Amino acid sequence: MGYPRTSRISEEIKRIVSQLMMNELKDPRLSPLTSIVGVEVTKDLRYANIYISVYGSQEEKENSLKALQNAAGYIRKEIGRSLKLRYTPELLFKIDQSIEQGMYISDLISKVTKKDAEDGRENDV
C-alpha cells in the first residue's frame, strides 16, 4: 500500500507530463501515439519513474524515449513550477511493455480457442 500523498503527487505528475507532451513538446522524434501509462514516485519524492507506451515500431519507441529523456530538464522545471514541493523529483522515463504483452497473450488465447473449436468439430463428425 502506497502513501496517499505520493499517489496524489504521482497522478499530478502524470497529468502535467501528459499535457506537456500534447501541447508543448515539439520534438519530431516524439511519436504522436505516445502515452503515459503510469508514474511511481519514491517515498522520499526524489525520483519519479514515468512509464510510457508507444504504439509503433521498436525504432519509434527508442526515439520517443530519447526525446523525453532530452526534454526531462524542461519537464522537471514545469513540474516544479506547477507543484509546490521542497524537491522536484528527478524524472526517469521507462518503456512499459504491458500493453504489448497483453495483446500477445490475448492473441495466443484466441489461437488456442480457435484450434480447440476446430478440433471439436472434427471429433464430432
From TrEMBL:
Lyase keyword on record: no
TM spans (from-to): none
SUPFAM superfamilies: Ribosome-binding factor A, RbfA (SSF89919)
Pfam families: RBFA
Primary location class: cytoplasm
Entry annotated with the keyword Cytoplasm: yes
Keyword entries, A-Z: Cytoplasm, Ribosome biogenesis
Example of a GO cellular component annotation carried by this entry: cytosol
Subcellular location as annotated: Cytoplasm
GO terms of molecular function: ribosomal small subunit binding
Example GO BP: maturation of SSU-rRNA
Annotated function: One of several proteins that assist in the late maturation steps of the functional core of the 30S ribosomal subunit. Associates with free 30S ribosomal subunits (but not with 30S subunits that are part of 70S ribosomes or polysomes). Required for efficient processing of 16S rRNA. May interact with the 5'-terminal helix region of 16S rRNA.
HAMAP family tied to this protein: RbfA
Family: Belongs to the RbfA family.
Quaternary structure annotation from Swiss-Prot or TrEMBL: Monomer. Binds 30S ribosomal subunits, but not 50S ribosomal subunits or 70S ribosomes.
Name this polypeptide is given: Ribosome-binding factor A
